[in-house]
Amino acid sequence: MIKKVSTVLVAVAIATLGAVGSAQAARTDITVGMQLEPPNLDPTAGAAAAIDEVVYANVFEGLTRFGADGSVKPALAKSWEISEDGLTYSFKLQSGITFHDGSAFNAEDVRFSLNRSRAEKSTNAQKQLFASIDTIKVADPETVVITLSAPNGALLFNLAWGDAIVMSPDTFDKAKTAPIGTGPFKFSRWVQGDRIELVKNPDYWGTPAKLDKAVFKFISEPTAAYAALMAGDVDAFPVYPAPENLAQFEADARFNVVVGSTEGETILSTNNKQAPFDNKLVRQALAHAINRQEIIDGAMFGYGTPIGTHFAPHHPVYKDFTANSAYDPAKAKALLKEAGFENGFKTTLKLPPPSYARRGGEIIAAQLRQVGIETEISNLEWAQWLEQVFRGKDFGLTIVSHTEPMDIGIYAKPDYYFQYDNKDFQQLMSDLTLETDDAKRAEMLQQAQGIIADDYVNGYLFQLAKTGVANADVVGLWENSPTQANDLTEVYWAK
User: Fold this and answer.
1) Sequence ranges of the domains in the chain
2) Residue 298 has pLDDT above 60, yes or no
3) Residue 8: band (very low, low, confident or very high) from pLDDT cuts 50, 70, 90
4) Which of 168, 196, 159 is nearest to 100 (CA)?
């Protein structure tokens, strides 16, 4: 009888321990907060950073990819060989890869995707990444050979962008709303205006994701973002939109606050073809009317690094040009007088949703008013901003963070939305593409920074800090943002 009771007790104890173990098992789902909802999910057909923030490395992959430290790493290509003349790149692809619909991946998909992105009628926002490519050939199912028209020291870097991801010719037309890639997560559902859901890809060719499910939740209002984190409705907000709350999260043991760097040059973008901003004196006056530190303190609560050109301060070849456009309202007024605007003028200031733009816009409007420049502020939703400002070029001034990695080359595109047309700069960028010597490339990049600073193309404000908040048990989120991504490939719960 005693033996029987003991057996029952042991069985109960084992069941109890099993229940406790299950209760303590680490979670395998995560909800990530984002302030902006992507307009679509095809990174080759849109300029919005929010696209890559959902799909980069999670759903879609390219031949190479950016690591958390900004380095370029193998992705779909496991290795490559470069010819002595620098014109031929032979990429050896990973084996056994399938797309999320079960179809096989091979070199033909790479050829198709890159040719599509560089085609004459391509809508790829970074089409210049592929400008040096002459031909793309399939040597065998696991080998693709890219031949260049001239050497390009940045090709592997360029192929790591989200704009260079690989899709199947059978499913590329679904990418905007139901993307099918090769990544560790599969697209599951998009509830417009609310969230996008991903699930683990059980057939992933590489290291499998530790999470079974990921939800990207769109919360545009900073107060709502704060409430969602505090309530546990959101587990992480990698780019938290309300820096004024960070001290509260830092004092709460339930959360980790991580302040890192981004590639986001935050600028007062200026329409260089619209009067009076087609006058360099006016653009220079604009630059001297801006108090960067006041903007950083007022809009970002001290988070941000002042910049005087379009280049990230953490980059080894960054050159500090902030003194070139130091705050000097008296000089700004004198320059306006010299330009024929002694009594100032009126212009538009069209602002997208992020708080750095909305808050910063109010501060900048007050600063410009002090020198006689009156701004008509329009608060636009993201889709409106893309339509009116980015594509329509219907603006005088706007504020936006350019989060693409080392993207100074956009100043060589006369039809880009701020419409800067400088033939010397364009030639310098062409020469930079051909240059493979690192020391010479560094010198040329510094020269490029100086040209746009001296031309006062835009009002250079600050480098956007990456102010992230996450549940203290979440591990593996990027501290810095070498590209615009919420890479969940190595994220897991500690408990």
Assistant:
1) 35-218, 261-465
2) yes
3) very low
4) 168
Q: What distance in Å separates the CA atoms of residue 437 and residue 442, rounded to the nearest whole number?
A: 9
Angle of helix 329-338 relative to helix 280-288, nearest 10 degrees, comes to 160
What is the full DSSP assignment across 323-385?
GGG---HHHHHHHHHHTT-TT-EEEEEEE-SSHHHHHHHHHHHHHHHTTTEEEEEEE--HHHH
* Residue 329 preceded by cis peptide, ω within 30: no
Query: Alpha carbon 102 to chain centroid distance?
Result: 29
CB-CB contact of 36 with 47 (8 Å): no
Q: How many CA atoms lie within 13 A of 257 on its CB side?
A: 19
| Torsion sign across C-alpha atoms 391, 393, 398, 404 | positive
pTM given for the model: 0.79
Mean pLDDT confidence for 219-230: 95
Of all helices (H) and strands (E), which one includes residue 195? Answer: strand 195-200
What pLDDT is attached to residue 24?
65
Please report how many Cα atoms fall inside a 13 Å half-sphere around the Cα of residue 204, on the Cβ side: 23
Question: What is the distance between the alpha carbons of residues 382 and 36, in angstroms, rounded to a whole number?
Answer: 8
What pLDDT digit, counting tens, does each position of 392-447 carry?
A: 999 999 999 998 888 999 999 999 999 999 999 999 999 998 888 889 999 999 99
H or E element that contains 264: strand 255-270
For domain 261-465, the question of CATH label 3.10.105.10 is answered with: yes
Distance (Å, whole) CA 186 – CA 173: 17
| Gyration radius from the chain CA atoms | 25
CA distance 241 to 300: 9
Task: Give me the CATH code for the 35-218 domain, please.
Answer: 3.40.190.10
The rounded mean pLDDT for the chain is: 93
The secondary element (H helix, E strand) that includes residue 29 is: strand 29-34
CA distance 201 to 436: 38
Largest interatomic CA distance in the chain: 106
Q: Is 87 helix (H, G, I), strand (E, B) or coil?
A: coil
Answer whether 311's CB lies under 8 Å from 451's CB: no
pLDDT single digits (tens) 14-50: 444 444 444 568 899 999 999 999 999 999 988 888 9
Residues in the chain: 495
**192-217: pLDDT as tens digits:** 999 999 999 999 999 999 999 999 99
Burial of residue 420, with CB atoms counted within 10 A of its CB: 0-12 exposed, 13-18 middle, 19 or more buried: buried
pLDDT at 404 (0 to 100): 85
> What distance in Å separates the CA atoms of residue 262 and residue 321, rounded to the nearest whole number?
19
Looking from the CA of 24 toward its CB, the CA atoms found within 13 Å total 6
